[in-house]
User: Which sequence fits this backbone?
């Protein structure tokens, strides 16, 4: 697999994942660009691993988890690249703005970063607990605990009764 | 319904809510095609930065390697000058260097001619330095099937490589280093040294500037030294057409090798041999007009190795050989020197590191120092 093939196949999924992680298209594009630059410069090391896709997703996850940890200077250089941000067209109309006020979305955004990463990997990327453990570089039990804690925080907000038909529709 | 089931139901409901929230926000996902150029641009910047950093690091290391020994040497209270010579490249065997003076006054578009050809010979004992002038009008082979050409024209034909090959073919010597200098470089070098003391032996009026040089010893600056050293004809008392004097070229050879000795003396006086910073300044002053190839040694190692022998420099004029007229010379009929048994024996002696013995039996070849009156 060449770098170009990887980009053609995986860039859009990575952008989706990053957007769900951050909830911010600009920040997502920025994170993905940053990670893809590293992927490109270290491509030989990346293709050498068993599943390059999981490896890159791990890089992206770590970059996301590092956001709060990084220094003011790096956060600024990472975020404040106007020419890169401008390259991402984002259309917003009234409906989308109202969707953004979505309660559960707001709750998801406010989850601790590792919990949110586990939730995105589980419910958006549909990865198994084992795969999530691989991406987050932790034990499977830790993944279960992260997701369980996240669900506990969210459950308090979701009216179970109103969604019984959804429940029955699923196996 | 058990509590566990109810928990499971609630869990699934929440899971579906989460999936729904993610699905509703997919519109936020940026388009890959909009992001790709940014990746390429950043990767390019990063590569440049990485390269810049790497080359900067290399430059720093190189600077350290060069500057630290220089700084140590330049330190005022250094315990020099009796440091043991740091393992020089190779200290055994005689060393031979080819020194070439170029005249850039040649017609525009043609290469300079090599008017001065000096072999600097440092015997294995390193006690003396011999400067041997080789007449530029010596006939040399110009490849099989070609008529012979004069040594000075090999440079015009094939540059330094052809000249060096011709000298090697003539003398059998291989060279451990070489230097070429043109008139501009010669002048700058002289000025960088603060002028050079020279003695005029024959009265001569410059055909280039009209300046008259009267016998006696003078302090020459760059301009006057180059003017004097270019003169080949019209020496008072030297028949200009006397083949025995190489049509004046042998006199000029002597002037130039005497000048070279004066430069080396001056360099010694300026402590250039141990003061590498100063040495580099002097060499840099001549700029591209002076090309030094110290072979497998650095210029510094060379200076250390040759330095002690500069106290005892001996000028040797290679016997010109027989006058031979070649009519098939492309430049037209000309008279030049064909090597003789005498000149061949000198080159053989140099090669065998036995030049002292050869000079004992050929005292007339010694240009300096003057034989002590007995």
Assistant:
């Amino acid at each position: 697999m060449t770098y170009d093939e990887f980009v053609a196949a995986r860039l859009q999924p990575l952008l989706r994942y990053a957007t769900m992680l951050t909830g911010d298209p600009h920040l997502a594009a920025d994170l993905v660009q940053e990670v893809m630059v590293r992927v490109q410069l270290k491509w030989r090391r990346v293709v050498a691993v068993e599943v390059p896709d999981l490896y890159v997703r791990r890089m992206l996850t770590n970059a996301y988890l590092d956001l709060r940890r990084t220094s003011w200077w790096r956060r600024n250089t990472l975020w404040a690249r106007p020419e890169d941000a401008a390259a991402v067209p984002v259309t917003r109309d009234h409906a989308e703005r109202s969707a953004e006020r979505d309660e559960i979305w707001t709750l998801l955004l406010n989850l601790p970063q590792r919990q949110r990463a586990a939730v995105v990997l589980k419910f958006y990327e549909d990865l198994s607990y084992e795969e999530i453990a691989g991406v987050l570089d932790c034990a499977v039990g830790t993944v279960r605990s992260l997701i369980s804690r996240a669900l506990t925080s969210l459950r308090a907000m979701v009216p179970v009764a109103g969604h019984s038909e959804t429940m029955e529709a699923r196996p | 319904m058990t509590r566990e089931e109810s928990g499971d139901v609630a869990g699934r409901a929440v899971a579906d809510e989460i999936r729904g929230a993610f699905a509703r926000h997919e519109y936020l996902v940026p388009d890959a095609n909009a992001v790709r150029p940014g990746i390429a641009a950043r990767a390019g910047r990063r590569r440049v930065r990485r390269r810049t950093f790497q080359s900067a690091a290399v430059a720093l290391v190189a600077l350290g390697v060069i500057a630290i020994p220089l700084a140590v040497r330049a330190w005022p209270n250094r315990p020099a000058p009796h440091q043991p010579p740091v393992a020089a490249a190779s200290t055994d065997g005689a060393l031979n260097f080819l020194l070439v003076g170029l005249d850039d006054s040649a017609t525009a578009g043609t290469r300079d001619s090599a008017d001065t050809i000096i072999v600097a010979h440092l015997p294995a004992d390193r006690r003396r330095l011999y400067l041997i002038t080789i007449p530029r009008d010596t006939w040399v082979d110009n490849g099989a099937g070609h008529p012979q050409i004069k040594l000075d024209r090999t440079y015009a034909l094939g540059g330094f490589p052809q000249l060096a090959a011709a000298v090697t073919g003539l003398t059998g010597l291989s060279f451990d280093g070489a230097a070429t200098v043109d008139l501009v470089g010669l002048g700058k070098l002289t000025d960088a040294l603060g002028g050079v003391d020279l003695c005029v032996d024959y009265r001569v009026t410059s055909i280039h500037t009209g300046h008259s040089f009267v016998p006696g010893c003078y302090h020459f600056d760059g301009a006057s030294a180059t003017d004097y050293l270019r003169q080949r004809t019209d020496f008072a008392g030297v028949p200009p057409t006397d083949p025995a004097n190489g049509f004046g070229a042998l006199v000029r050879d002597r002037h130039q090798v005497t000048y070279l000795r004066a430069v080396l003396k001056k360099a010694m006086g300026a402590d250039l041999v141990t003061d590498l910073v100063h040495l580099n300044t002097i060499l840099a002053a001549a700029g591209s007009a002076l090309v030094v190839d110290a072979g497998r040694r650095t210029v510094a190692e060379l200076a250390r190795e040759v330095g002690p022998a500069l106290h005892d420099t001996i000028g040797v004029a290679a016997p010109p050989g027989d006058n031979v007229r070649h009519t098939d010379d492309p430049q037209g009929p000309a008279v030049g020197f064909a090597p003789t048994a005498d000149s061949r024996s000198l080159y053989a002696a140099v090669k065998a590191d036995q030049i002292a013995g050869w000079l004992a039996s050929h005292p007339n070849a010694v240009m300096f120092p003057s034989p002590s009156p007995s």
Summary: DSSP finds twelve helices and no strands in chain A. Chain A touches chain B through 46 residues (CB under 8 Å).
